[in-house]
């Protein structure tokens, strides 16, 4: 077994997918150090987790600490939480692209980011266009291994109350059997599946600049 221990960065570790990914990295002996960059501290974490607290909209302040083997970006907001479109774009576009630029500058060779189904930089829908522009901004950095995950609705237990989303998940679960063939990519994908797929992509695949939809996320989560 390779004795070299890796360092990973997570943005968005306080969210559903990021938190599940953090749990996996903590328990993975391949990782010696996990760096979190966030607005607030997470209590009760082991010593291998190093927390850097500050404004993620000014990510350059962390340039010297932003070093790792792998960068995992799980940052994202919602229209309900961030109704102001300018601020929404600053978060959903600005933070991942800034992270990709720092990753390139600091020699991080793996960048994995969660986007969303429907992402399209040419879309007339603001939210889809923002995700598409984010993807392009990340790809433009030319990082050696870049993976963009486009899940459909994300399943899992969230701390905050998101009533409409929960209703949508219930409806989607009922009609899941209808999603076959090309429609498989619209099936719900659980957050723990996304987290596992991200970890597997970093450690078992050599593809560069790949975009992965929900059905493929589920398959990648099964690989070892």
From TrEMBL:
This is Nucleoside-diphosphate sugar epimerase. It comes from Maribacter litoralis. The lineage of its organism: Bacteria, Pseudomonadati, Bacteroidota, Flavobacteriia, Flavobacteriales. PANTHER family: OXIDOREDUCTASE HTATIP2. It comes from the Bacteria.
